[in-house]
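Hi Y.,

Following your request, here is the sequence exactly as I used it, all 175 residues.
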Amino acid sequence: DAILNRLFLTSYDLELFQPALDWCQKGYRRFPADSRFVECQLMLLSTNARDPDVGEAWRLVDEYTRLIPARDRPLQRLYAQVWAAAVLGRAGLRDSAHRVLERSRGDATVDPERDVLGYQAAVYTMIGDKDDALRVLGEYLVANPRHREGFRKNVHWWWRSLQDDTRFKALIGAR
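Below is the corresponding structure, written out as tokens. Let me know if you'd prefer a different format.
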């Protein structure tokens, strides 16, 4: 299961969405009770590998949340809702995507590392909202200043549309 998940994540990160879809489907067939193989389906709905099926996204949010241990559900549900917001945005429902993102912020009691903010910023970028993406990314980097170095070394495809923006460069400390 760990190997299939790693193969999925590597393919996804490299924008090789068809192989990512294949690894995700293989993982789900072999390990249907593993939340990672439900999450990967949700992640892929945010890409051009799948049509943006809003109903399917919410079904996956519920399935994913059900498979998560009870103590982790509040935080993991936020992550799942952020992915659902990406699907809403892809489906042309930007206002709905914004509302879901706003209610998925969490706080330091649920998300002490404030990692959800990074995913929210990515989804704002995916749906074409650079201003909110940069605002939320700024909050994320204030909470996680050590991550700036990672952004400077390797910019994930999520941030491609921001790479030339001077505000993005300032946030990550690029020269």
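The first helix runs from residue 2 to 13.

Thanks again,
Q.
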